[in-house]
Design brief:
Radius of gyration: 26 Å
Oligomer: single chain
Strand content: 15-25%
Strand order of the largest sheet: 4-3-5-10-6-9-7-8
Distance between the termini: 74 Å
Number of domains: 3
Shape: elongated
Mean pLDDT: 89
Number of strands: 10
Largest sheet: 8 strands, mixed
Length: 301
């Protein structure tokens, strides 16, 4: 071994984070481990060095001068490693891209457009997986994620805008004939989804409308509720991209149009898309597909 006095490497990340935050709790949160795991690594490092690194008080944790000096050296080393890794990844990154997408958006918008991706971006292979909500690129084996911004995005994650979310009641053409006024919704079954249970309330808040419905039915996933709407079971709240193709084909009708709900869809990535040519090309294609969505006012019944 060339470095006989090197401290245990697995102790250095928890140590540096603890010094930077002056808190084992905040260090544990950053590293996605428990407080106890950080504490054990700090103790292991102190034992290896033969000296305490923190002055432990009742409500505070103060790094010693020696600890601050070591943490600065660790930080410099990590910066150099990060710089080298980024340079390598820019030059050598290749192969398939693992993309996570919200399940119903994946099924009803992205997958039907994949043949165009093969034509427009030849040679790019995308491995798709269904997933929703917050994402951790450090813990999950994915490269990118398409998400609606209804949750806080972690610091350091890059967001690239795709399209704004719009919502409104959708139903089969036969049921739409019974809807000349918003109040008529009270005579029809309302369809809900467990994955976005407040959808009807959100639409009501945006339009100043209160709708009870003749009955209520809840489905586990959005795509089930929308399929039930196509079948004429009742009226569902249809997000713009999820119902666009059915509206164009005439399988669904939006009798009262679609309204912006203030949220947006983004492509999330652990680093800026321009640092990886594959990601940049995929983003350009996703944006081109978003631009092809017909304006909501054209889709109104």
């Amino acid at each position: 071994m060339r470095w006989p006095d090197l401290p245990p490497p697995n102790t250095l990340l928890p140590f540096e984070a603890t010094v930077r935050h002056a808190s084992m709790t905040r260090a544990a949160h950053e590293l996605h481990v428990t407080h106890g795991a950080v504490s054990r690594q700090i103790q292991k490092l102190e034992k290896a060095l033969g000296t305490p690194l923190f002055e432990r008080e009742t409500r505070s944790l103060r790094p010693t001068p020696q600890a601050r000096r070591l943490a600065a050296a660790v930080r410099d080393a990590l910066d150099q490693i990060d710089s080298a890794a980024r340079e390598i990844s820019r030059r050598e990154r290749g192969g398939p891209i693992a993309l996570s997408c919200e399940p119903t958006l994946l099924m009803r918008w992205l997958i039907p457009r994949l043949p165009d991706l093969a034509v427009q971006v030849p040679g790019l292979t995308v491995h798709l997986s269904a997933g929703g909500g917050p994402i951790s690129f450090e813990r999950e084996t994915i490269d990118l994620a398409v998400r609606r911004d209804d949750f806080p995005v972690p610091a350091g994650v890059s967001r690239a805008y795709l399209f704004a979310e719009r919502i409104g009641p959708v139903c089969s053409p036969d049921l739409a004939q019974r809807l000349s006024r918003v109040e008529d919704l009270g005579s029809l079954p309302l369809l809900h989804t467990s994955t976005r249970p407040q959808a009807w309330d959100d639409w009501g808040r945006l339009t100043g409308t209160r709708v009870e419905g003749a009955s209520q039915q809840t489905f586990e996933h959005f795509y089930l509720a929308l399929q039930a709407a196509v079948a004429g079971v009742g009226v569902a709240i249809g997000p713009y991209a999820l119902v666009h193709d059915d509206l164009v084909r005439g399988q669904l009708v939006a009798p009262f149009g679609l309204v912006a709900d203030g949220t947006r869809y983004h492509l999330l990535s652990p680093r800026p898309p321009e640092e990886d040519a594959r990601v940049s090309r995929l983003l350009d294609w996703l944006r081109s597909q978003a631009a092809r969505l017909r304006p909501p006012e054209e889709l109104r019944a």
